[in-house]
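dude i think i finally got it to work??
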Amino acid sequence: MAVLLQHLKLLHQGKFSQPRNYSLDQGKLTPVEGNASVAYEQVIDCSNYLASKGWVDLRCGIGEPGQEYRETVESLCTTLLASGFAKAVVLPNTHPVIQSKSEVSFLQNKAAKFTPELAILGAVTKNTEGEDLTEMLDMHYQTGITLFGDGTKPLSNTDRYLKILYYLQKFGGTLFDHAYDPLLAIFGQMHEGEMSTQLGMKGIPSLAEDVAIQRNLDLLRYSGGKVHFQTLSTAKGVDLIRKAKKEGLNVTADVSIYQLLFSDQDLASFDTHLKVMPPFRATSDRKALLEGLKDGTIDALVSNHQPQDFDSKFCEFDHAAFGMVGLQTFLPAMVLLAEELGWELLLEKVTTGPEQVLGTESDSWTLFDPKETWTYNEQSNTSLSANHPWFGKELKGKVKFCIQKGQLLQVND
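look at this
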């Protein structure tokens, strides 16, 4: 039986439609023309909702296998659904690392019973240590994955970087690159600038990211292939990607949504929940990131969901782990950015933008109320981790329904 969605504003080809009625039957949304007499199993008033294709997250951490107390496949998929995401790229930084067909198949099999889809990022070096290469070809031909990278670890060995690009070209794979120079960033706790000096903390200079992006673009220019640069944070980094695209290099890029909301000035309180990698940069970097989104240099917004246990954050800033969770706060973050960027652009960066990076197209939908408020706390949190500065606060923007794998799923009720 069909479901009638009344007065829904649907994003199509970059623009929202006028409120109209849609029929949902066997997972397909079609406009209701005239007063056709149809027996509906359910009628939903969507007057306050906006709808778009199902959201795609290109950077999502997990704990399983090995650190199930941080995040399991089940808790991640539950949180993805509650947050409006139909698909997520899962990083390989687990214990053991996702570096062979066995680990990839393990995650694929566990995720198969849930409606959100997990795209596994296979590690390119053993234990993500940047030296010995993994069996990338075997992982691809045995499991079908085409996305590879060392996740939260940078690839600083130029010889390995070139070889990886050559290997991935054999089957059209994409290298996901978290580019920064680990030696320039060594012992760093936050962005290097006036604030790090005032707080007496070792800084991570923008140069660490800029040098690595420039070098890796030169390597790509030499070898060919496709690279997706993750979590840009510097003004020069954005400019380097912009020039590379104009040159015709096969590059794409994303940015963590929280980079658009915070700066290094917010670390004055020593809140360990704000310790992330790359760190929050200067206000000028934030402006450059926004411009990169507007002109198409940056293809996607990511949650950079990095769950951490309580002890990893409840300690001195220097000893705290990097990262924050970011799935359930993603829509409230977009609400804060909507006035500056507009809903059409924001939703493009979580739908068609990441889909083009992956070379896929979704038949899922996300319906949300941008004005409904809710409290992010122990009762509403679906993740196993809560390392976010907004935990315990009232937020605006709530996902209401998802259409995934042909099913209409009510969430957050």
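The domain at 53-365+380-396 is CATH 3.20.20.140 (TIM Barrel).
im so relieved honestly
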